[in-house]
Write a structure and sequence with these properties.
Strand content: under 5%
Number of strands: 4
Shape: globular
Number of helices: 66
Helix content: 55-70%
Radius of gyration: 41 Å
């Protein structure tokens, strides 16, 4: 505001008078004019009330309005994003502000205006003096005329003539003049004088009560001038008065309105008549109600600073007004209805904004609920009654008229006329908003049940929610005249919003939503449609979408999901015994197949289907939800729909013409053709992507062949920073980590561009700083090894490379680039390599996209060329250039030292051959001066790389790959030896710095193997004192580390000891006896719980041999293997460098434990050669896209058994051959199932191990149920339990548990069953719960779990907990494990009761029972183990299937014979005999 209006000048004149009046004593005491000026100049220093003067406040507000935006902009520019600002910054901002044009313009305008005000005051002073002299003789003391003189010493002053003090007698006289018996002119003159008086004097006078009564009477006057004048007085007085005076005005206004409604008894119009808001009486009421509503919205901002009784008076006066129900006397019921104040309030504030503000704070909320409960429960009853009335009107309204009169219409010709139905609808919306706010609080729900007219029983919360849902069902098809207004105030939208709000609160959801009648009401339309009946919905398409939204919100909560999955007590008509999840998924499948005869084709639109797919996604993106919905094969249905959508959209896109610059119609036609189909494709991709949230779901997603497309879709949303969904709070972190745990998943991330984006972000914060801003203050040196600015990128890389399979997929066979020079402006990653190849292409695309976008959209894009730091603009194109559909053109500003952006197009750049090796070359393998000189922050960047390498090497398979390919240990030792001083004539001493200490820690970690009590890792920080680092440096490799890093722990004794289990094994009890296994398990559990020391190495070896031989002979799961290898064949096998390195590690560990007397290297190498030949015979046929035949990494189970059996390789070989026939081998022996012929061909080709998609899946499922805090901690950190468990299980807990516990892990899983692998992981995570929660807060959970051993875990302490888990989940887990040869990627018998529909595909499909998921003849004898957990567990061999019976994945097509096959249908295979 730079200019002053005439009103502003008048107000300034008044404020200046008031200031001079307040300082009259100071000015009058000044001896001269100069002293008076000096007093005014230093008034701020001498007057404590200076900032309370109205003129000062006014000027402050004016300066804020004029310069506020400028000051904020200068402050942000000067602070540069820092949290605080220094005094130098404040002075700089002040100086720039004073030098600005806006400041100079404001000062000039202010000077001119104040000059005019002062001149006007002087002129008025002279005029007043002349008038005063003329009228002085006739002016009687105390007379009540135009001016009020109080015979004070300043009565001759001109400053009190327009706004003078007023006496009590004068106010009493004004009250009498305002009486209704007085003429209009008298009352008008009295109001004029009252408005000129100070508000504080008026409100504090003794006659205020009588004056308020007179004002209320004038307020009801029919003369609009008088009533408007009173309203202006109230508004002006309240705006300049404290709350204690404002509440009196508000109460007076509310009581006046209350009396008016009770006395006049207005009625609602009948029929087509309406209320005209321009009618004088209605207009007057609306003005008064508008003032009240404005008070209501403003008062909550300051009433907390005043006593509670003031606030209570305001709230009670409001409730008293709204509870007015005028009695119309003899009017017959149903013909006339009284016009109540709430109708007018609803017209002014239809969504009850005032009530939302009042309910925001507990201070006012407590008073509201207390008053509602004690005196004004009728308000709640009236709101509920209005909802019931609206439902009744909707049910009785004909479809022809329902769309035209249900909601307020906005006709331009009758904008001032409101019909009765519109008033009733406004009242309904207002009541719905009020009820929604009441229900989310506990005290609000305590107001129910209530007594409702025409209802015999009390009306409960559940009844209210059911009523609201029925209102949503009865909402008709909205008219198309005003879509925006209709959508915002549509009943179904309002009800859906209310139900969402209730679902967000745990307590309100439990009391209002998670009730059987509510769920049954929500599912009733679905059940009727599934049964071929008509649903009672007036607008099926829109209503079904809102039903799906509510179901999705319920399913997104833990308790709601459990209700959908497990509650089978719902009364679902003919579908009793079914849970809600089955109804939802069956309805979704029928929508996908367009197989609902009761619905029209347009009512089965992609929007409706997508809404229900999202609701299903909230269930199957959890382990327990996928467990229930998996038999339906929904992933195959979605993949088939996606394939069909791609086939439909591709011709449309290819037939589209090339857009012509400057021709807008071409762009519109492209959007028209591609818009709906693109949205539908993205919906299907998003639905498939939800499967990637769980390990088993990721396998199902991979089986559809759409993994790459879905990951690319996820990346496109990730770079735009879009929310995963409206029900997800933690972003894509968990999903990315889940995908990165597998080889195909991490390759999909690589192809999508996610890895490149991650590396570029890392380099920008690590080497380039934040932005290209002028450096005012030097950047502080980071004190932490990983700076906070780099922590997010560091954890993202850890999540990406946490799995050994991911590291192998990205780095296997990729050499480090050998270069002589590294330019400073080059970014290490695929992006740097890709920029060189596609730079010309990028420039062409940028120019062409610029022309197209500017011509079609009239957009002005500035393409920065070069610049001081080499900026390059980049085009992100979504499709090919032939169609020229440029979805967005984004200018990237990356790095302070000239990062080069790259083209992230929809087509993949052939740059996957060089990725993380670039990052390793620049940050980890820093072995030359050229690399050192290329880093701006050498120490920080290299420390970052070493920390990342340390985390990667915690996975032994990853370490073996990195060491065998890059010789990292030799490189680190070389850098360690070079880091010495070189004094003349003396040998150099090792320099202790951050890098040397970090390298020493890393070398000891990778060379010393053992659990927490078997090795000691050196610290990463120096100590205080004379010897800051007393640990010896590791300076030789591959020899063992210094002796101080190897501890003498309590080893597992190898000799036999007298114990019950050894006596049992030595007894002559026939092993084939039915009770032998049960007795063996019982003896083992007893020994483990009481005397674990009796389980010596020889006892465990003998026990494992006996158990495996018995089970292999009596209960083989896989076909028996007859392995006889010739010596010539064994000699021809060449072990890889990874295996040879692994052999050295195993032998060194065995010798440190005293388990190997001889060298043992050749014996272990021979064992691995035999294992290679044995497993190679069971490899599946190599597929072009399959993973390599060689198992990635070392065979850690074979190495463990080799040490357990004291280096007897032949004994281990025989044991492994027998063990391979058992189900346990599929999970305990990862190399056994790698590309195995026993797995379906697509699963074998994927390289995803069963220990991930089965064991780790159930670990996450049981962890959420048994240890929810740990599960939540993983989710908040963006890490997954499956990744950590996969590493533990693959390397048999080496480096995490001591050797005795490693042996106990193997023996427990072999003896007790493969499902104990799940229970062991859950027990370990429960044991680590305190540390997990602590490190989640520290934001380093991933690093802690990978680097730190599992301290204090002993199997004897947790065996009882594992047995409890077996009793709860044993049947479920073991049943699914037994289905390993036929995992439910497309479930056999997914819809067994539905195959009869192939006879008549158009016959309505009845709601059927869920598919049977238990395998036939493979588990019925095992279910009895729940009664006796120690009972022998038969491990049945799966029945041999013929080719005709091996095509269950295609049976789902019987639902719709014309439906396309799923993507990448797996080939039909017959298990080898």
């Amino acid at each position: 505001m730079s200019q002053f209006s005439s009103e502003d000048e008048a107000e300034l004149q008044y404020l200046l008078r008031q200031l001079l009046k307040s300082t009259k004593d100071r000015i009058s005491g000044a001896p001269s004019i100069e002293c008076a000026e000096e007093i005014l100049l230093h008034l701020e220093e001498t007057d404590k009330k200076f900032h309370n003067y109205e003129l000062v406040r006014y000027l402050r507000q004016h300066v804020d309005r004029s310069l506020g935006a400028l000051v904020e902009a200068e402050t942000e520019l000067g602070a540069g994003g820092d949290a605080g600002a220094s005094a130098h910054d404040i002075h700089a901002v002040t100086r720039r502000t004073r030098d600005s044009t806006e400041y100079k313009q404001m000062m000039q305008t202010l000077k001119n205006t104040m000059s005019l005000v002062v001149e006007s005051l002087i002129n008025k002073f002279e005029e007043d003096q002349l008038r005063k002299e003329e009228t002085y003789r006739d002016n009687l003391p105390g007379a009540s005329e135009g001016r009020f003189n109080d015979n004070c010493s300043d009565s001759d002053s001109s400053f009190n003539h327009s706004y003078a003090f007023i006496k009590q007698e004068q106010l009493q006289a004004l009250a009498e003049q305002l009486d209704s018996s007085q003429p209009k002119e008298v009352r008008w003159e009295a109001l004029q004088k009252l408005c000129c008086a100070p508000p504080s004097d008026v409100l504090s006078c003794e006659t205020w009560n009588s004056l308020r009564t007179s004002l209320s009477a004038v307020l009801d006057d029919r003369d609009p001038d008088l009533s408007d004048k009173v309203l202006k007085f109230f508004a002006k007085t309240s705006s300049s008065s404290p709350f204690n005076l404002t509440r009196e005005i508000y109460s007076s206004l509310a009581k006046s309105l209350e009396g008016y409604f009770l006395s006049h008894k207005l009625s609602l119009p009948i029929g087509s008549d309406g209320i005209d808001v321009t009618r004088p009486d209605i207009s007057r009421l609306l003005k008064q109600m508008r003032l009240i509503n404005d008070f209501q919205k403003e008062m909550p901002s300051f009433w907390i600073r005043h006593p509670e009784k003031y606030m209570e008076e305001v709230i009670e006066s409001t409730f008293s007004l709204l509870s007015v129900h005028p009695d119309l006397g003899l009017a017959s019921p149903g013909t006339e209805k009284a016009l109540e104040p709430v109708y007018l309030l609803a017209l002014l504030d239809i969504k009850a904004t005032w009530f939302n503000k009042w309910m925001h704070s507990y201070y006012s909320r407590a008073v509201i609920f207390r008053l509602l409960e004690r005196k004004y429960k009728s308000l709640i009853v009236a709101a509920v009654q209005q909802c019931l009335q609206h439902l009744s009107d909707c049910e009785h309204r004909s479809p022809q008229t329902s769309g035209s009169s249900a909601e307020p219409q906005t006709s331009s010709s009758q904008w001032s006329i409101y019909t009765r139905s519109e008033l009733e609808y406004a009242f309904f919306v207002h009541s719905l908003c009020v009820l929604g706010k009441v229900l989310i609080y506990t005290n609000g729900r305590k107001l129910f049940p209530i007594k409702i007219r025409k209802h015999k029983d009390l009306y409960s919360l559940t009844d209210l929610v059911v009523t609201l849902i029925n209102i949503m069902y009865q909402h008709p098809q909205p008219p198309h005249t005003d879509p925006s207004h209709t959508v915002s105030l549509a009943p179904r939208s309002l009800v859906t919003e209310l139900l969402w709000m209730l679902c967000e609160q745990t307590e309100s959801a439990a009391e209002c939503i998670y009730q059987s009648p509510v769920i049954e009401t929500l599912l009733a339309p679905l059940i009727r449609l599934l049964n071929g009946e008509q649903a009672k919905l007036k607008s099926p398409a829109g209503t079904l979408t809102h039903i799906a939204d509510v179901l999705a919100r319920i399913a997104s909560t833990d308790r709601g999901l459990a209700l959908f999955l497990n509650d089978k007590s719902l009364d679902l008509s003919s579908s009793k015994g079914l849970s809600a999840s089955h109804v939802i998924v069956q309805f979704t499948q029928r929508l996908l197949d367009k197989d609902l005869p009761s619905l029209g084709r347009w009512e089965m639109s992609p929007a409706v289907c997508g809404a229900f797919l999202f609701a299903c996604g909230q269930m199957y993106n959890t382990c327990e939800g996928l467990q229930v919905l998996r038999p339906y094969g929904l992933h195959s249905c979605i993949a088939a729909a996606l394939k069909e959508a791609n086939a439909v959209s591709t011709p449309a896109s290819t037939q589209a013409s090339t857009p012509i610059p400057g021709h807008s119609s071409s762009t519109c036609s492209l959007e028209t053709i591609a818009g709906p189909s693109l949205i539908w494709e993205e919906t299907l991709q998003d639905s498939l992507l939800h499967f990637a949230a769980t390990p088993k779901g990721l396998l199902l997603l991979h089986s559809t062949g759409a993994l790459d497309h879905c990951v690319a879709y996820m990346y496109s949303r990730f770079i735009k920073k879009l929310q995963v969904s409206r029900c997800e709070k933690f972003g894509y972190g968990v999903m990315v980590t889940q995908v990165a745990a597998t080889a195909p998943g991490v390759m999909a991330l690589l192809n999508s561009g996610y890895v490149q984006e991650l590396v570029v972000k890392l380099w920008s914060v690590l080497e380039c700083g934040r932005e290209d801003l002028r450096v005012v203050h030097p950047k502080s040196t980071p004190m932490d090894p990983i700076d906070r600015s780099c922590l997010k990128s560091f954890l993202a890389l850890v999540n990406l490379l946490s799995s050994g399979a991911s590291v192998w997929a990205l780095l296997r066979g990729q050499p480090l680039p050998q270069r002589e020079a590294y330019p400073l402006r080059e970014v290490p990653s695929t992006i740097a390599c890709a920029c060189t190849r596609v730079f010309v292409f990028v420039c062409v695309v940028c120019v062409w996209a610029y022309v197209c976008v500017c011509a079609a959209e009239q957009m002005i894009l500035e393409l920065p060329l070069g610049g001081s730091r080499g900026l390059v603009s980049v085009c992100r194109s979504g499709t090919s250039l032939n169609n020229c559909m440029v979805y967005y053109l984004e200018l990237l500003l990356v790095g302070s030292r000239g990062l080069v952006s790259v083209c992230r197009s929809g087509t993949a750049l052939n740059n996957n051959t060089v990725l993380n090796q670039d990052l390793m070359d620049r940050l980890i393998a820093v072995d030359s001066d050229a690399k050192i000189n290329s880093l701006f922050n050498y120490e920080q960047s290299h420390t970052f790389g070493l920390r990342l390498l340390c985390v990667l090497c915690c996975d032994l398979d990853s370490f073996l790959l990195l060491e065998s390919q890059y010789a990292l240990c030799s490189m680190l030792l070389l850098r360690q030896k070079e880091n010495v001083t070189e004094p003349a004539g003396a040998q150099g001493q090792l320099i202790l710095d951050r890098l040397s200490v970090e390298r020493n820690h890393l070398l000891v970690r990778v060379c010393a193997v053992g659990g927490p009590s078997e090795r000691r890792l050196p610290p990463r920080a120096l100590q205080e004192g004379p010897d800051p680092y007393p640990w010896p440096m590791f300076l030789s490799y591959p020899s063992a580390p210094p002796q101080c890093y190897t501890l003498d722990s309590a080893m597992l004794p190898q000799s036999k000891q007298d114990s019950e289990i050894s006596a049992f094994l030595a007894s002559g009890i026939p092993a084939k006896d039915e009770g032998w296994m049960a007795t063996c398990r019982k003896q083992y559990c007893k020994a483990m719980s009481t005397t674990p020391s009796s389980l010596t190495g020889s006892v465990l070896s003998q026990l494992l041999e006996k158990v495996v031989s018995v089970n292999a002979a009596t209960q083989p799961f896989f076909p028996p293997a007859h392995y006889k290898a010739k010596d010539s064949s064994v000699k021809r096998v060449e072990l890889s460098a990874v295996q040879l390195l692994g052999i050295n590690i195993c032998v060194r560990y065995g010798r440190s434990l005293g388990l190997l007397k001889d060298e043992g290297t050749e014996e272990l190498a021979l064992l691995l050669k035999h294992s290679h030949l044995f497993l190679a015979a069971q490899r599946a046929t190599t597929h072009p896209t399959a993973v390599p035949d060689l198992h990635p990494g070392q065979d850690w189970l074979a190495a463990t058994l080799f040490l357990m059996m004291a280096g007897d390789g032949e004994r281990v070989r025989r044991w492994l051959v027998d063990f391979s026939t058992l189900l346990c081998s599929a999970f305990l022996w990862p190399a056994r199932m790698h590309s195995s012929v026993h797995l379906p061909a697509p699963v074998a080709a994927s390289g995803i191990p069963p220990v991930y998609w089965c064991t780790a899946h159930y670990v996450e499922m049981l962890l959420k149920a048994e240890v929810p805090l740990v599960h939540s901690a993983f989710r908040m950190s963006g890490f997954t339990p499956s990744q950590m468990c996969l590493q533990w299980l693959n390397q048999c807990f080496w480096n995490y548990l001591d050797w005795p516990e490693v042996c106990h892990y193997v023996s427990t899983c072999v003896l007790m069953g493969p499902d104990y692998q799940v229970y062991v992981c859950v027990a370990v995570l429960k044991h680590m719960q305190p540390d997990i929660l602590l490190h989640t807060q520290a934001q380093d959970l991933q690093v802690y779990l990978k680097e730190e051993p599992i301290l204090g875990f002993r199997f004897q302490d947790h065996l009882e907990f594992m047995e409890q888990l077996e009793g709860k989940y044993g049947t479920t887990v073991l049943t699914d494990m037994q289905r390993i040869t036929t995992p439910a990627t497309t479930p056999a018998a997914s819809t067994p009761t539905d195959h009869a529909r192939c006879i008549n595909p158009h016959r309505p499909r009845p709601l059927h029972q869920p598919p049977q998921t238990t395998p036939a003849a493979s588990t019925p004898t095992d279910h009895a183990r729940c009664i006796n957990p120690h009972r022998t567990r038969p491990l049945h061999r799966p029945p041999q299937t013929t080719p005709a019976a091996s095509t269950p994945t295609d049976h789902a097509r019987c639902i719709d014979p014309h439906r396309p096959r799923p993507l990448h249908q797996p080939p039909q295979t017959t298990p080898a005999a």
